[in-house]
Design goal:
The chain is mostly helical.
Length: 167
């Protein structure tokens, strides 16, 4: 593996992880702010502008990695042109990264999912409301989306790695 391939791979992995975290953490939190402050139009404009900026950044990270490598001169100044990572190829490293990202999503959101399920069950079987426990369907839906996304990443890691490994 050359230095250029290695840095291209790292940039794409960072871009993939960042876009997943942004889409399922940053955007849902700000949607709640938009609903709370409906009359504040500048806040809505800032949120829309930041989402557009983040999506542009992730497009550059995922599909223009060579441009970043050229501008930052990441492959300059090394003694050797190759980096030895054992028997791993680009595709195998991407597969591992996609599996890790999917696993992190499952591990991170499974407790939230269980907490919301338990809260829903408590509210359904109780004759009256439970003090201090309210069902937060927004967090529940975000947890479900992240769990499904984690499962999709884990089950389709080969197709995702081939998509990201295109030059």
């Amino acid at each position: 593996m050359t230095k250029r391939d290695f840095f291209r791979l790292l940039i794409k992995i960072f871009g993939l992880y960042s876009i997943i975290i942004t889409l399922f953490t940053f955007i849902p939190q700000n949607i709640a702010n938009v609903y709370m402050y409906v009359d504040v139009s500048w806040l809505q404009l800032v949120i829309v502008a930041s989402v557009i900026l983040l999506l542009l950044l992730f497009y550059i990270l995922l599909f223009k990695a060579d441009y970043i490598i050229n501008k930052l001169e990441l492959d300059k100044g090394f003694d050797n042109d190759t980096i030895v990572l054992g028997n791993f190829s680009n595709e195998q490293i991407l597969k591992l990264a996609i599996l890790l990202i999917g696993g992190f999503l499952l591990i991170d959101y499974f407790p939230n999912f269980l907490f919301e399920i338990i809260t829903i069950i408590k509210m359904k079987i109780s004759n009256h409301g439970i003090m201090g426990n309210e069902v937060n369907y927004f967090n529940f839906s975000i947890a479900i989306i992240n769990l499904v996304l984690g499962l999709v990443l884990i089950t389709n890691y080969k197709k995702n790695s081939l998509f990201l490994d295109k030059k």
